[in-house]
Structures are given as C-alpha cells and as structure tokens.
Write a structure and sequence with these properties.
The strands form two sheets. Strands 1-10-7-12-5-4-2 form a seven-stranded antiparallel beta sheet. Strands 3-6-11-8-9 form a five-stranded antiparallel beta sheet, with no helix packed on it. 37% of the residues are buried. The mean pLDDT is 95. It is globular, with a radius of gyration of 16 Å. By secondary structure, the protein is of the alpha+beta class. The chain has a single domain, classed as Jelly Rolls (Sandwich), CATH 2.60.120. It has five helices and twelve strands.
C-alpha cells in the first residue's frame, strides 16, 4: 500500500535533516505523496458542509473536519462513507503498523498509533499565531510526539503567506522557516516545550486545503 500513497524513499531520505534541525526537529518535504494518488486526494477533498466546524478564537482562524466518528485521542479506524475511497485508504493506512514504523524511522521518535486526524481548510483572512502545544508539560505526559501537516493546494502561488512556519519564539520576527510551496508538500515537527509554529494572515483568495495528523 505504501507504494501507492506515500513516497517513503523520498521521506526517509530526509530523516537526517528532520532529526538534526534547530531550534527543534522539523522537516519540510516536497512530494511526500505519489503524484497519481495526490491528484485523487485533491479531486475528492471534502467540500465545506455541516460536517465542518469553526476553529476560531483570538489566536487562530480556520475551519476543520473530523474523519468519520474519530476525535483527538479517540481515533476509530473505520470508513467515512461521505469520503472517497482514496481518503478512506489513506486514513486506514495511517492507522497501520507500517505507517507508524515508517514515521518512527523518519522522526527518530517511537510511535505506535495515530492519535488524531483532521481536515484543515484555511481561507482569506485565516491565520494562526505562534504557539507551542506542550509548554510546561512533562515529556512522559505528552499526548503525541509529532505533528504533520500535508498541503493539497494545487493552485498555490509560491511565496504567498499561509504555510505553517517554524519559529524560535512567540513572535513572527523569530521565524526560521516558512514553506511557500504548498502543492503536495508537508511540514512535520517534533513536540517539545519550545516547538513554536504558526501561519501568517492569508491575504489572497486561494484556499489552503490540508490535513493534519499526530501520532503517539
């Protein structure tokens, strides 16, 4: 199955970069999904309906959608009949032992399960202020070990704001990396007390369809 969905050779060839990056482990990869499969995912990305919900507060703005009946910390490995076979196969694969072993090899972090999976759609006016997920939390109490965002923005204009950036602190002046090619690409970062990240205010009309998943 891995040969039809993820380009693992490409991903694993970048594992050393991920594990040695600073100020915390992170990595950007172009073409993590094989092209034919990627096109199927783009063509069947879920349209906005009542299954989507607002993720807005003072610090962020976007809309999200769960997969089937799954929620964070309660992933249910079953079909979502409102989604295409391609999306169902991807979800099931991320729940597999092979997927967790591959991601463990890429990140250097031992994981055994998919902890969360969401569709995330950012549009004009959306943003995410710099933040870190596990400030003040002991390592043994982390709910998950890394976060991955996969972008499916075929029409993205390179250089436009809106990709998830990596920063040294809670200010955009400390950004160390910001992805600008969001057509079949991902950013993955390890969870640490200082894994600062966010996304700039989107000023253009081209949406940013993506998925976000975590593993534990």
């Amino acid at each position: 199955m891995n040969k039809t969905i993820f380009n693992w050779d490409n991903i694993l060839n970048n594992s050393e970069i991920f594990q040695n990056n600073h100020p915390f482990p992170y990595g950007f990869i172009k073409n993590p999904i094989n092209e034919e499969y990627y096109n199927e995912l783009c063509n069947t990305y879920p349209t906005v309906d009542d299954k989507w919900y607002s993720a807005d507060d003072y610090s962020r703005s976007s809309i999200k959608r769960h997969f089937g009946n799954s929620k964070a910390n309660n992933v249910i490995d079953e079909d979502d009949k409102s989604l295409s076979k391609s999306w169902n196969d991807l979800f099931h694969y991320l729940n597999s032992k092979e997927a967790t072993e591959k991601m463990s090899a890429y990140t250097g972090l031992k994981v055994t399960k998919l902890r969360s999976f969401n569709f995330v759609l950012n549009r004009k006016g959306d943003f995410n202020l710099p933040h870190s997920h596990h400030i003040g939390v002991n390592l043994e109490d982390y709910e998950y070990k890394f976060t991955v965002l996969i972008y499916l923005a075929k029409d993205w204009i390179k250089g436009s704001p809106g990709g998830t950036y990596i920063s040294e602190g809670e200010d955009e002046s400390t950004i160390v990396f910001e992805p600008t090619d969001l057509n079949n690409s991902w950013i993955c970062f390890a969870e640490t007390p200082n894994s600062w990240h966010g996304s700039k205010y989107m000023t253009h009309d081209i949406p940013r369809p993506s998925i976000q998943f975590t593993m534990a």
